[in-house]
Structures are given as structure tokens and as C-alpha cells.
Amino acid sequence: IDFGFEDIPASEKQSRVRGVFDAVAPKYDLMNDAMSMGVHRVWKELTLTKVNPQPGEVLIDVAGGTGDLARTFIKKADEVRKRRGGPSARAIVCDINAEMLIAGTDARRDAGLDITRVCGNAESLPFADNYADALTISFGIRNVTDRPQALREFYRVLKPGGRLFILEFSTPPAKVLREIYDAYSFAVIPRLGGLLAGDKESYQYLVESIRRFPRQEPFADMVRDAGFARVGYEDYTGGIAALHYGWKI
Ligand code: SAM
After folding, report:
1. Residues lining ligand 1, judged by CB closer than 6 Å?
2. The pLDDT of residue 240 is above 70
3. Which residue among 81, 104, 160, 237 has the highest number of C-beta atoms inside a 10 angstrom radius?
4. Class of domain 5-247
5. Over the range 139-178, which residues count as b (16 or more CB within 10 Å of their CB) and which as e?
6. Bridge-based pairing state of the strands 132-138 and 241-247
7. Percentage helix, strand, coil, to 5, in the chain?
8. Whether the Cβ atoms of residue 84 and residue 53 lie closer than 8 Å to each other
9. Helical (H) or strand (E) element with 234
């Protein structure tokens, strides 16, 4: 199914994206594991190593979904805190979809962690200027309608010296890997979505949105255009995913 997002009004795209995530929210973690064969956990771990959380820092995890990145951010800052002291870090999970936030709220997993959940749109973040030390968005930017506007918002809410990290599916630069990956994603993922979540069409949409997302260099240019400095990216698993980063200076 091709929703033809390029041809429909932005407001409608937003509601369709919301619909997709309403449909998948409860099975989201299970599907994530099945789709990437667990590798998304490794990509998030690599991302957090690069983020390098420190005691007392504030993280905003935009499109944070069930909040696993936010939890690990605080735990990693706590490891540093045990050695060097300092205040706890805290994290705010911001997601447009309340179902997603509810699915992620888990008293046991959140115990002892300073996590707040806020329903909000990446394009108009509900935070003051110069608020956060770090902002992450993992597998979320692809679904944002007005990406330049979201990137400007990320810049606005970061403190001077703050850092941005965007983890997203990308395009393997090597042709052979690209072809294998294309075959896998178009043939296997929608079927898995049908089997595990009973929702083949939503996963078909996810595959197509990955294909339409800009490649590494053009996306790095968009991050630069929003004002970020020292912009770069690293490919994960041959470019199946990429981490873009930049600093507000
Ligand atoms: N970050 C989580 C992770 O890596 O597991 C969740 C990723 S999930 C694929 C994408 C998330 O983006 C969903 O929770 C969805 O509700 C959220 N989302 C989509 N459009 C958004 C927007 N404009 N603003 C904020 N969140 C959005």
C-alpha cells in the first residue's frame, strides 16, 4: 500500500502517522526485535556511548516511544556518578502518541529513575529555549512531516554546548547490501508485521518510509541548515542505520 504522503496535506499525513503508531504501539517492542533481529538494541547502545551521558544532565528523547533510550541514558550517567559524584541525570520522553507513552510506562523499570513523559510534537516542542544538554531522536525523524522545522526546534531547546543525536534507518552505500536489504524489507517485514502484530499495512508503510528518507549526506546538510556545528554521521551495520550528530555552539 502506498499512502502517497508526498501528495497529501501535512495535517493528514500527521494523522495517518498517528494511526500507524496507534495500531502498533502495544506490540512495538516485540516488532522492533523481530524486524531488526535484536540489532536495534546494539544501535541504541552505540548511540548512547556517543551521547556519553553525564551526572546532572537533562536529556530530551523526542519520539521516545516506550522510553528505553531515556532509561539507559540515566543509568549510564549514574555509572559515572558512582565514580565521580554529582547529581542524578534526568530524562524527558516526548512523543506525539499518548498510547506509546502509556505502553512504555512501567513502574518497575522506571524505579529510581527521574523520567518524565510528555505528549508533544517534534515540530513544536513543549520546552523552553536552552533547556536540555542532549537531545536524542531514535527511529522518529522519518515520521516527522516538517523535518527542517523539527531540526530548528531541536536547536532551540538545546543549551549552548548541547548535542543532538538522530538515529534512523538509512541507506547502505554498498549496492550489494542495499539490494539484499531491499529484498528483505519488502518481502519479509510486512509479513512479519502481519503475523506478529496482525497489521501488514502499517509495516508496509514503515518499509516505504525508510526508502523515501534522505541518504546520509543530504540529511547531514539538513542538520547543518538548522544551525548545528560539527555535524557528522556514522553508519551502523553497513548503513542500514545511521547516527547523525551535531552541536549547538
Ligand atoms: N524512539 C523509540 C525507539 O527507538 O524505540 C520509538 C520509535 S517509533 C518507530 C517512532 C515514534 O515516533 C512513535 O512513538 C511515534 O508516536 C513518534 N512520532 C511520530 N511522529 C512524531 C512527531 N511529529 N513528534 C513526536 N513524536 C512522533
Report:
1. 17, 21, 32, 62-65, 95-97, 100, 121-123, 138-140, 143-144
2. yes
3. 104
4. alpha beta
5. bbbbbbbbbeebbebbbbbbeeebbbbbbbbbbbeeeeee
6. unpaired
7. 55, 20, 25
8. no
9. strand 229-236
- Cβ atoms of 135 and 165 within 8 Å: the answer is yes
Mutate to test the pocket of ligand 1, among 61, 71, 96 (most ligand atoms within 8 A of CB): 96
Distances (CA, A) of 181 to 36, 47, 208, 214: 11, 22, 13, 16
Domain ranges of the chain: 5-247
Give the predicted TM-score (pTM) of the model.
Answer: 0.88
CB 34 within 8 A of CB 196: yes
193 pLDDT higher than 90: no
Across 93-132, b (16+ Cβ under 10 Å) vs e yields bbbbbebbbebbeeeeebeebebebeebbbbebebeeebb
- Enter the C-alpha cell of residue 152: 530548528
Longest dimension (CA), the chain: 54
Residues in Cβ contact with 138 at an 8 Å cutoff, skipping those fewer than 6 apart = 44, 47, 61, 63, 64, 69, 166, 167, 168
